[in-house]
Amino acid sequence: MGLRTTVKERAGDECAVFQKSKKTSRSPTTSQVPDAKIDKVLEMIKNLTTEVKLLRKEQQGCNEELKKLKEENGALRRENESIKLKMKILRIHCLMYIQD
């Protein structure tokens, strides 16, 4: 009979959940931090923010430089392919000239 619960018992259990206190005790002495520490933390946050801005600006410059290098690399690859094609044509002409 211990496994079966009645509707009344289940309803009582559900009400008990809502009746629990949700208050938390807080002591005023533990939450107080000296102003000097807060100022120091704020200064550190300010410095970190400045550093992040500088890093982002530097990253943007690097990204632009990388884009230019990629474009230059693409142009060089196209030029290389063109030179290879011209070399093939010259070889064919030389072979034809030698055979004649």
- Could you say which overall geometry the principal axes of the C-alpha atoms support? elongated
Secondary structure class reads mainly alpha
How does the major sheet shape up? none
Please give the count of helices. Answer: 3
Strand content: under 5%
Strand tally: 0
Distance between the termini: 111 Å
Q: How big is the Rg?
A: 39 Å
Plain-language structure description:
- This protein is mainly alpha-helical and 100 residues long.
- The chain has a domain at 34-99.
- Helix content is 82%, strand content 0%.
- The chain contains three helices and no strands.
- The mean pLDDT is 84.
Short overview:
Residues 38-86 form a coiled coil. With 100 residues, the chain is an all-alpha fold.
Properties at a glance:
coiled coil; mainly alpha; 100 residues
What are the SSEs and their pairings?
Blueprint (H helix, E strand, L loop, with lengths): L6 H13 L8 H4 L3 H65 L1
